[in-house]
Amino acid sequence: MTEPERDDQADQTEKQADGSGRGNKKSEPKPWKPPARNTIHNEIVTLSMVLKTAQRHGWLENLPDLSDPYRRQSKVEHRPWFTPNEYKQLFKATRKNAAKPKRKRYKRHAEQLHDFVLFMANTGLRPDEVKHLEFRDVEIVEDEYSGQKILEIEVRGKRGVGYCKSMPGAVLPFERLRDRERPMAGNPNGENSEPVEPSKLEQTDRLFPNEFKKMFNNVLTDAKLKFDRNGKARTAYSLRHSYICFRLLEGADIYQVAKNCRTSVEMIEKHYAAHLKDMIDTSLVNVRRQKPRREEQEEPDQRPEA
Length: 306
Fold this sequence. Notes:
Blueprint: H1 8-18, H2 37-56, H3 84-99, H4 107-123, H5 127-131, E1 138-142, E2 149-157, E3 160-165, H6 171-179, H7 213-222, H8 237-249, H9 254-260, H10 265-271, H11 282-285
Antiparallel strand pairs: 1-2, 2-3
Helix pairs in contact: 3-4, 4-6, 4-8
Protein backbone atom coordinates (compact mmCIF):
# COMPACT_ATOMS: atom_id res chain seq x y z
CA MET A 1 0.00 0.00 0.00
CA THR A 2 1.48 3.30 -1.12
CA GLU A 3 1.40 6.47 0.93
CA PRO A 4 -1.35 8.90 -0.16
CA GLU A 5 -0.44 12.45 -1.13
CA ARG A 6 -0.72 14.91 1.74
CA ASP A 7 -2.98 17.94 1.33
CA ASP A 8 -1.25 20.66 3.36
CA GLN A 9 -4.00 23.22 2.72
CA ALA A 10 -6.72 20.85 4.00
CA ASP A 11 -4.64 20.00 7.07
CA GLN A 12 -4.19 23.69 7.89
CA THR A 13 -7.93 24.33 7.53
CA GLU A 14 -8.72 21.41 9.83
CA LYS A 15 -6.29 22.65 12.49
CA GLN A 16 -7.83 26.10 12.43
CA ALA A 17 -11.31 24.62 12.81
CA ASP A 18 -10.54 22.59 15.93
CA GLY A 19 -8.10 25.11 17.42
CA SER A 20 -5.13 22.72 17.39
CA GLY A 21 -3.09 25.06 15.21
CA ARG A 22 -2.78 27.69 17.92
CA GLY A 23 0.41 28.14 19.87
CA ASN A 24 3.99 29.13 19.30
CA LYS A 25 5.27 25.65 18.48
CA LYS A 26 4.71 24.32 14.98
CA SER A 27 2.86 21.02 15.07
CA GLU A 28 4.62 18.56 12.80
CA PRO A 29 2.46 16.06 10.91
CA LYS A 30 2.63 12.50 12.14
CA PRO A 31 4.46 10.07 9.87
CA TRP A 32 2.10 8.01 7.72
CA LYS A 33 1.90 4.28 8.21
CA PRO A 34 -0.30 1.71 6.48
CA PRO A 35 -3.42 0.64 8.39
CA ALA A 36 -3.30 -2.59 10.32
CA ARG A 37 -5.07 -5.72 9.10
CA ASN A 38 -7.61 -5.50 11.89
CA THR A 39 -8.42 -1.89 10.94
CA ILE A 40 -9.05 -2.87 7.33
CA HIS A 41 -11.21 -5.78 8.46
CA ASN A 42 -13.37 -3.53 10.67
CA GLU A 43 -13.86 -1.01 7.86
CA ILE A 44 -14.85 -3.75 5.40
CA VAL A 45 -17.37 -5.14 7.87
CA THR A 46 -18.88 -1.67 8.36
CA LEU A 47 -19.03 -1.08 4.60
CA SER A 48 -20.67 -4.48 4.09
CA MET A 49 -23.40 -3.65 6.63
CA VAL A 50 -24.10 -0.34 4.86
CA LEU A 51 -24.36 -2.04 1.46
CA LYS A 52 -26.67 -4.76 2.82
CA THR A 53 -28.95 -2.08 4.27
CA ALA A 54 -29.04 -0.37 0.88
CA GLN A 55 -29.96 -3.67 -0.80
CA ARG A 56 -32.81 -4.30 1.65
CA HIS A 57 -34.26 -0.88 0.82
CA GLY A 58 -34.00 -1.62 -2.91
CA TRP A 59 -31.34 0.96 -3.61
CA LEU A 60 -28.89 -1.68 -4.89
CA GLU A 61 -29.60 -4.74 -6.98
CA ASN A 62 -26.37 -6.62 -6.33
CA LEU A 63 -23.67 -6.48 -3.69
CA PRO A 64 -20.01 -6.16 -4.63
CA ASP A 65 -17.55 -8.85 -3.64
CA LEU A 66 -15.92 -7.79 -0.37
CA SER A 67 -14.12 -11.04 0.38
CA ASP A 68 -10.57 -10.80 1.68
CA PRO A 69 -8.00 -10.60 -1.12
CA TYR A 70 -5.49 -12.25 1.19
CA ARG A 71 -5.39 -15.41 3.22
CA ARG A 72 -6.75 -15.16 6.71
CA GLN A 73 -4.29 -15.47 9.54
CA SER A 74 -4.23 -19.10 10.62
CA LYS A 75 -1.87 -18.61 13.54
CA VAL A 76 -3.58 -18.65 16.93
CA GLU A 77 -1.74 -16.13 19.05
CA HIS A 78 -1.54 -16.16 22.80
CA ARG A 79 -3.42 -13.42 24.58
CA PRO A 80 -1.14 -11.20 26.67
CA TRP A 81 -1.17 -12.27 30.31
CA PHE A 82 1.05 -12.06 33.38
CA THR A 83 3.02 -15.11 34.40
CA PRO A 84 2.96 -15.87 38.15
CA ASN A 85 6.32 -14.13 38.61
CA GLU A 86 5.24 -11.13 36.53
CA TYR A 87 1.98 -10.84 38.43
CA LYS A 88 3.89 -10.83 41.71
CA GLN A 89 6.07 -8.07 40.33
CA LEU A 90 2.97 -6.13 39.24
CA PHE A 91 1.10 -6.11 42.53
CA LYS A 92 4.31 -5.19 44.36
CA ALA A 93 4.65 -2.20 42.02
CA THR A 94 1.03 -1.11 42.56
CA ARG A 95 1.43 -1.54 46.32
CA LYS A 96 4.52 0.66 46.26
CA ASN A 97 2.68 3.22 44.15
CA ALA A 98 -0.24 3.22 46.61
CA ALA A 99 2.10 3.80 49.56
CA LYS A 100 4.09 6.56 47.87
CA PRO A 101 2.24 8.06 44.87
CA LYS A 102 3.95 10.62 42.67
CA ARG A 103 1.44 13.26 43.80
CA LYS A 104 -0.32 13.31 47.13
CA ARG A 105 -3.72 14.13 45.65
CA TYR A 106 -3.60 10.88 43.65
CA LYS A 107 -3.16 8.68 46.72
CA ARG A 108 -6.76 7.47 46.70
CA HIS A 109 -6.57 6.65 43.00
CA ALA A 110 -3.35 4.70 43.61
CA GLU A 111 -4.99 2.71 46.41
CA GLN A 112 -7.97 2.02 44.15
CA LEU A 113 -5.64 0.83 41.41
CA HIS A 114 -3.88 -1.61 43.73
CA ASP A 115 -7.21 -3.10 44.83
CA PHE A 116 -8.35 -3.16 41.20
CA VAL A 117 -5.39 -5.34 40.19
CA LEU A 118 -5.97 -7.78 43.05
CA PHE A 119 -9.74 -7.85 42.48
CA MET A 120 -9.43 -8.51 38.74
CA ALA A 121 -6.79 -11.21 39.09
CA ASN A 122 -8.90 -13.08 41.66
CA THR A 123 -12.27 -12.83 39.90
CA GLY A 124 -11.55 -12.96 36.16
CA LEU A 125 -14.12 -10.27 35.36
CA ARG A 126 -13.97 -8.24 32.18
CA PRO A 127 -13.01 -4.56 32.56
CA ASP A 128 -16.44 -3.42 31.34
CA GLU A 129 -18.12 -5.74 33.87
CA VAL A 130 -16.07 -4.28 36.71
CA LYS A 131 -16.88 -0.77 35.52
CA HIS A 132 -20.63 -1.32 36.08
CA LEU A 133 -20.22 -3.34 39.28
CA GLU A 134 -22.02 -1.95 42.34
CA PHE A 135 -21.66 -2.90 46.00
CA ARG A 136 -25.10 -4.47 46.03
CA ASP A 137 -23.93 -6.92 43.36
CA VAL A 138 -21.23 -8.41 45.62
CA GLU A 139 -21.72 -10.58 48.69
CA ILE A 140 -19.17 -12.19 51.01
CA VAL A 141 -20.03 -15.86 51.61
CA GLU A 142 -18.32 -18.95 52.97
CA ASP A 143 -17.12 -21.44 50.39
CA GLU A 144 -18.56 -24.90 51.03
CA TYR A 145 -15.54 -26.57 49.44
CA SER A 146 -12.67 -24.83 51.23
CA GLY A 147 -14.43 -23.18 54.17
CA GLN A 148 -12.81 -19.84 53.26
CA LYS A 149 -14.54 -16.55 52.54
CA ILE A 150 -15.14 -15.76 48.88
CA LEU A 151 -17.21 -13.31 46.85
CA GLU A 152 -20.42 -14.14 45.03
CA ILE A 153 -20.79 -11.57 42.26
CA GLU A 154 -23.80 -10.81 40.08
CA VAL A 155 -22.22 -9.72 36.82
CA ARG A 156 -23.80 -7.48 34.18
CA GLY A 157 -21.84 -7.00 31.01
CA LYS A 158 -21.07 -8.43 27.60
CA ARG A 159 -23.06 -11.66 28.06
CA GLY A 160 -25.98 -10.15 29.95
CA VAL A 161 -26.48 -11.17 33.57
CA GLY A 162 -24.22 -13.91 34.95
CA TYR A 163 -22.61 -15.04 38.18
CA CYS A 164 -19.06 -15.41 39.37
CA LYS A 165 -17.44 -16.93 42.43
CA SER A 166 -14.09 -15.39 43.25
CA MET A 167 -10.92 -16.67 44.81
CA PRO A 168 -10.36 -15.97 48.54
CA GLY A 169 -7.78 -13.35 47.54
CA ALA A 170 -10.55 -11.01 46.32
CA VAL A 171 -12.21 -10.62 49.74
CA LEU A 172 -9.63 -8.31 51.34
CA PRO A 173 -9.48 -5.85 48.40
CA PHE A 174 -13.29 -5.71 48.38
CA GLU A 175 -13.40 -4.97 52.12
CA ARG A 176 -10.88 -2.16 51.63
CA LEU A 177 -12.99 -0.73 48.81
CA ARG A 178 -16.09 -0.93 50.99
CA ASP A 179 -14.51 0.67 54.05
CA ARG A 180 -12.43 3.31 52.27
CA GLU A 181 -13.56 6.91 52.69
CA ARG A 182 -15.18 8.19 49.54
CA PRO A 183 -15.20 11.81 48.26
CA MET A 184 -18.30 13.93 48.13
CA ALA A 185 -20.53 13.49 45.09
CA GLY A 186 -19.73 16.25 42.63
CA ASN A 187 -15.99 16.16 43.36
CA PRO A 188 -14.88 12.72 42.14
CA ASN A 189 -11.19 13.55 42.45
CA GLY A 190 -11.49 14.10 46.17
CA GLU A 191 -9.61 17.39 46.11
CA ASN A 192 -10.47 19.81 48.94
CA SER A 193 -13.57 17.79 49.84
CA GLU A 194 -14.79 16.29 53.06
CA PRO A 195 -14.82 12.48 52.99
CA VAL A 196 -18.00 10.54 53.55
CA GLU A 197 -18.06 8.18 56.51
CA PRO A 198 -17.84 4.48 55.54
CA SER A 199 -21.17 3.80 57.30
CA LYS A 200 -22.90 6.17 54.88
CA LEU A 201 -21.83 4.20 51.85
CA GLU A 202 -24.69 3.62 49.44
CA GLN A 203 -25.22 0.14 48.03
CA THR A 204 -25.76 1.66 44.59
CA ASP A 205 -22.24 3.13 44.56
CA ARG A 206 -19.81 1.59 42.12
CA LEU A 207 -16.71 -0.23 43.27
CA PHE A 208 -14.50 1.67 40.83
CA PRO A 209 -16.19 4.97 39.92
CA ASN A 210 -12.99 6.44 38.47
CA GLU A 211 -10.79 5.31 35.63
CA PHE A 212 -7.03 5.04 36.12
CA LYS A 213 -5.90 3.82 32.72
CA LYS A 214 -3.04 6.30 32.53
CA MET A 215 -1.77 5.44 36.02
CA PHE A 216 -1.98 1.71 35.25
CA ASN A 217 0.01 2.16 32.04
CA ASN A 218 2.63 4.20 33.89
CA VAL A 219 3.03 1.46 36.51
CA LEU A 220 3.38 -1.17 33.78
CA THR A 221 5.95 0.92 31.93
CA ASP A 222 8.01 1.64 35.05
CA ALA A 223 7.99 -2.06 35.98
CA LYS A 224 8.84 -3.01 32.37
CA LEU A 225 5.69 -5.11 32.10
CA LYS A 226 3.83 -3.18 29.40
CA PHE A 227 4.71 -5.66 26.65
CA ASP A 228 4.87 -9.44 26.78
CA ARG A 229 7.36 -11.79 25.16
CA ASN A 230 5.67 -11.44 21.75
CA GLY A 231 5.61 -7.63 21.87
CA LYS A 232 1.88 -7.39 22.63
CA ALA A 233 0.75 -4.58 24.90
CA ARG A 234 -0.78 -5.57 28.22
CA THR A 235 -3.98 -3.88 29.39
CA ALA A 236 -6.54 -4.38 32.15
CA TYR A 237 -7.90 -7.28 30.10
CA SER A 238 -4.59 -9.07 30.71
CA LEU A 239 -5.63 -9.54 34.35
CA ARG A 240 -8.63 -11.58 33.20
CA HIS A 241 -6.36 -13.64 30.93
CA SER A 242 -4.04 -14.19 33.88
CA TYR A 243 -6.89 -15.41 36.08
CA ILE A 244 -7.91 -18.04 33.51
CA CYS A 245 -4.33 -19.20 33.02
CA PHE A 246 -3.73 -19.38 36.79
CA ARG A 247 -6.82 -21.54 37.27
CA LEU A 248 -5.73 -23.91 34.50
CA LEU A 249 -2.21 -24.12 35.90
CA GLU A 250 -3.67 -25.15 39.26
CA GLY A 251 -5.56 -27.99 37.59
CA ALA A 252 -9.08 -26.52 37.67
CA ASP A 253 -11.76 -28.09 35.48
CA ILE A 254 -11.86 -26.26 32.17
CA TYR A 255 -15.66 -26.41 31.95
CA GLN A 256 -16.10 -24.86 35.40
CA VAL A 257 -13.56 -22.14 34.56
CA ALA A 258 -15.46 -21.30 31.37
CA LYS A 259 -18.75 -21.21 33.28
CA ASN A 260 -17.32 -18.95 35.99
CA CYS A 261 -15.84 -16.60 33.38
CA ARG A 262 -18.99 -16.60 31.22
CA THR A 263 -17.22 -17.83 28.11
CA SER A 264 -16.97 -21.07 26.15
CA VAL A 265 -14.70 -24.07 26.57
CA GLU A 266 -13.68 -23.67 22.93
CA MET A 267 -12.37 -20.15 23.53
CA ILE A 268 -10.34 -21.27 26.54
CA GLU A 269 -8.86 -24.26 24.73
CA LYS A 270 -8.00 -22.11 21.71
CA HIS A 271 -6.53 -19.02 23.36
CA TYR A 272 -5.33 -20.23 26.77
CA ALA A 273 -4.93 -23.97 27.29
CA ALA A 274 -3.05 -24.51 24.02
CA HIS A 275 -0.22 -22.27 25.24
CA LEU A 276 0.28 -23.62 28.77
CA LYS A 277 2.93 -26.25 29.21
CA ASP A 278 1.32 -27.61 32.38
CA MET A 279 -1.77 -28.61 30.39
CA ILE A 280 0.27 -31.43 28.81
CA ASP A 281 0.04 -34.58 30.88
CA THR A 282 3.39 -36.35 30.55
CA SER A 283 1.94 -39.53 32.01
CA LEU A 284 -0.24 -39.76 28.90
CA VAL A 285 2.32 -38.46 26.42
CA ASN A 286 5.58 -40.13 27.41
CA VAL A 287 4.22 -43.64 27.15
CA ARG A 288 6.44 -46.45 25.96
CA ARG A 289 5.33 -49.84 24.88
CA GLN A 290 6.93 -52.51 27.01
CA LYS A 291 9.28 -54.72 25.10
CA PRO A 292 8.44 -58.42 25.26
CA ARG A 293 10.89 -60.30 27.40
CA ARG A 294 12.83 -63.12 25.84
CA GLU A 295 11.53 -66.46 26.88
CA GLU A 296 14.00 -68.41 28.80
CA GLN A 297 15.32 -71.34 26.82
CA GLU A 298 14.02 -74.49 28.25
CA GLU A 299 16.58 -77.16 28.98
CA PRO A 300 16.31 -80.29 26.75
CA ASP A 301 14.51 -83.21 28.27
CA GLN A 302 16.89 -85.76 29.61
CA ARG A 303 15.52 -89.13 28.69
CA PRO A 304 16.60 -92.08 30.80
CA GLU A 305 18.98 -94.42 29.14
CA ALA A 306 17.42 -97.66 27.98
